[in-house]
Amino acid sequence: MTRSTITKMLWFLFSTGINIILSACYNLTKRFIGSERHGPELPPGNMGWPYIGETYQLYSTNPMSFLAKKQNKYGPVCKTRILGCPCVMVSSPAAAKLVLLTKAHMFKPSFPISKERMLGRSAIFFQQGDYHARLKKLMLRAFMPAVIRGKVSNVEEIAMSALQSWEGRSHINTYEEMKIYAFNVALMSMFREEETAVCMEEIKKCYHLLEKGYNSFPIDVPGTLFHKAMKARRCLEHIFAGIVLSRREIKAVPCDLLGSFMDDEYSLTDQQIADNIIGVIFAARDTTASVLTWVVKYLHDNPVFLQAVIAEQEDIKREMREGDRSVLTWEDTKKMTMTSRVLQETMRMASVLSYTFREAVEDVEYEGYLIPKGWKMMPLFRNIHHDPQNFTDPERFDPSRFEVVLKPNTFMPFGNGIHSCPGNELAKLEMLVLLHHLTTKYRWSLAGSRKSNEIQFGPFVLPINGLPIRISSKEDTNN
Ligand code: HEM
Q1: pLDDT tens digits, residue range 136-179?
Q2: Radius of gyration, CA atoms only, the chain
Q3: Res 37: pLDDT
Q4: From 136, 185, 286, 287, mutation site for ligand 1 pocket: most ligand atoms within 8 A of C-beta
Q5: Ligand 1: distance of its center to the CA of 18 in Å?
Q6: CA 102, CA 96: separation in Å to the nearest integer?
Q7: Shortest CA distance to 385 belongs to which of 294, 249, 256?
Q8: Could you give the CA distance from residue 243 to residue 126 in angstroms, rounded to a whole number?
Q9: Is the CB of 172 under 6 A from ligand 1?
Q10: What is the pLDDT of residue 251?
């Protein structure tokens, strides 16, 4: 018997032993708790393996079918175990409303500690109470319609230059390109152009390293992705501290996110500002890029709606020509009714944030079930968006479903309640502006279309390989 065979056998015996011990402890604890507990029961559902639970099903296989199967088997409130934590998944509009809105004070935000370290402990996502309310006010002040209507031309400039950079390329990774676009829009909404001009490449490099380490194993020793990401994070903090310092020297407060953070009567610390700048880039970029990638795919696959969007955008172009205007205005974007419905339907179908996590701060009773203190709650946006009780024929792409008023709490692409998305108006604006230029100036086809209906996960649900496409200018093909 070779040395490696012996090692394998010993390892097998060891891991089997550990599993048996863990299972025994788990069953004993379950029996003990079961016999002691009176009153409401835990929700139905399988918790999966001891400790590991159903983590693999959620992260490594197809989470969409896992989430759907769970709901079909156990109903809209069911239990599971993810990353070592007991969780309750909820997939009814009423339960999601309770967790996110009406009883939000009983459910605090919940993230693994490594994510908090990486994004910054003072970032908005991890907060509750007064500090959260203050941050939210400052963000909404920078992203409210009255402010971002003044940024339409900046967004348009970024969209046009993004699309021009795609021209003449035989293979465009839609998701990667949309990430660059959303990143540039996010930075524009926070800083003045001259503040980032000199350090732009450094910011991109550091953010790229941060992104690579975000989902890595959280071991902070030299050489690991996590360590490199933490180093890149410190570098970003340093860059943003420099910008804050130089801004303190100018008198006028610009109408952007940094301006809002710095013009706070209680004034945020440099650390709080850096954490929230990094946090907003994080929240703004991949979400918007995923929706834009899906809309390119859905419009490609649904020529009738593509033609309707083109017609609407051509009408706007005609009006601009007649009014002797060359740049889009906020009012133009408000006329994009069909395009907005296509975006709504894309957000419903793709549900790029399929679920979120909260943690019960005390025992909560819901529909006769007990949700014990410390358990995670997972409102499943995707399941709500794909439930035939909420949307007829839910797997069909049909923007016309948004012509009528929806049932309450059935459509939550930007979340609900106190932690709902403060950047939703900016996100809608940047998506509409990009679609205006994409649909009026270009045609696109799928490159590598053989697999175009396959999906990739991790952490966002995306078309396979980020949707490779080719584009051609309408002007070139018309000549
Ligand atoms: C289509 C694009 C976007 C989608 C689908 C989206 C979706 C969401 C959702 C569902 C939440 C709530 C998460 C939860 O309850 O746990 C959220 C929160 C948040 N989003 Fe967005 N978002 C988008 C774009 C943006 C943009 C462009 C920004 C900023 C410019 C932004 C900033 C934030 C922030 C800061 C939060 C945390 C709010 C809090 O904790 O109070 N998002 N987003």
Answers
A1: 999 999 999 999 999 999 999 999 999 999 999 989 999 999 99
A2: 24
A3: 53
A4: 287
A5: 41
A6: 9
A7: 294
A8: 25
A9: no
A10: 75
- Most confident range (mean pLDDT) of 57-66, 70-79, 454-463 is 70-79
What's the pLDDT tens digit per position in 407-453? 999 999 999 999 999 999 999 999 999 999 999 999 999 997 666 67
Ligand 1 atom closest to 347 (CA): 5
Q: Which of 414, 416, 419, 433 to mutate to test the pocket of ligand 1 (most atoms within 8 A of CB)?
A: 414
Within 10 angstroms of residue 318's Cβ, the number of other Cβ atoms is 10
**Cα separation, 12 vs 23, whole angstroms:** 16
Q: Which residue has the tokens 């998944």?
A: 89
351 within ligand 1 shell (Cβ under 6 A): no
345 touches 386 (CB < 8 A): no
Does 417 sit in the ligand 1 pocket, CB within 6 Å?
Answer: no
| Distance between CA atoms of residues 313 and 316, nearest Å | 5
Q: 159 C-alpha to center of ligand 1: Å?
A: 21
Number of C-beta neighbours around residue 220 at 10 A: 13
pLDDT of residue 424: 98
pLDDT (0 to 100) of residue 142: 96
Indicate the pTM of the whole model.
Answer: 0.91
Atom of ligand 1 nearest to the CA of 139: 35
Rounded CA separation 446/450 (Å): 9
Per the CB < 8 A criterion, the answer to whether 162 and 182 are in contact is: no
Coil, helix or strand at residue 126: helix
In short, whether 419's Cβ falls inside 6 Å of ligand 1 is yes
**DSSP H helical ranges for 323-375:** 330-334, 337-350
For residues 8-33, average pLDDT: 46
**For 278-307, how does the pLDDT look when each residue is reduced to its tens digit (9 = 90+)?**
999 999 999 999 999 999 999 999 999 999
Give the residue ranges of the annotated binding site for heme.
421
Indicate if ligand 1 lies below 6 Å from the C-beta of 467.
Answer: no
Which atom of ligand 1 is least distant from the CA of 143?
30
Q: Where are the domains of the chain?
A: 38-112+352-385
C-beta separation of 142 from 189 below 8 A: yes
Q: Which residues are annotated as a binding site?
A: 421
The class level of CATH for 38-112+352-385 reads alpha beta
